[in-house]
Design goal:
By secondary structure, this protein is an alpha+beta fold. The chain contains two helices and 13 strands. Strands 1, 2, 3, 4, 8 and 9 form a six-stranded antiparallel β-sheet that branches. The termini are far apart. The mean pLDDT is 87.
Amino acid sequence: MPARYTGSRRCRGVVTRQHAFSLVELLVVMGIIVIMLVALAPAVTSLSKSSGRKSAVSSLMNAMEQARSLAISSGSATYVVFGDQCLPDDYRCRALIVFQDQPDFTQRAVTNWRFLPVGIALRPAMGLLSAPGGATPVRFACPGPFGSAPRVLPYVKFEPTGMVSAPTDPNMLFVDIFAGAVDLAGSANYTDNAQRQSQKFDAVVLARLTGRARYVDPYGRS
């Protein structure tokens, strides 16, 4: 009968080493992340501004079409009125409202103020944002925190035929859109240096005879 082995056998364990990041490695990774963020920041900012301008274009075109359609359907002239540099910051060259002629020859607001996206404004004293001409400019009693006293503001007027009757100069039937704001002196303060240097702007242009609005790309892109 064979003898039974009763001795102990030493188990040989496998030791697993876990590698941890050193402080130097962590700093290198963090440095790479910071460099990537700095490189991407201008592109993200530019994309945000571009998106804001496109949204402003859409808002302007919708307001123009609403005013034109209302003039045709109601048989009464309508106006798209723009806030100028005399109004508070939130309204200054970045807000618009629709008015309509009334039987008593006054004008009444038929919409609330519409505001452009934050950081986007209309180029002051250009096109439809120019000061109204004429010996007796139309005055609008606008709702808002600045009182209801009628005031002279830039506007475009649509007749019941859909035609644009004011401004009368066809070279003024446009609105330029830029990234930035307008100060109390009526000067444009740009936040997009490329736009400031190139002076190329997204624009909404009106056809006098039809009153139709169209978008004009500053770089001729379709």
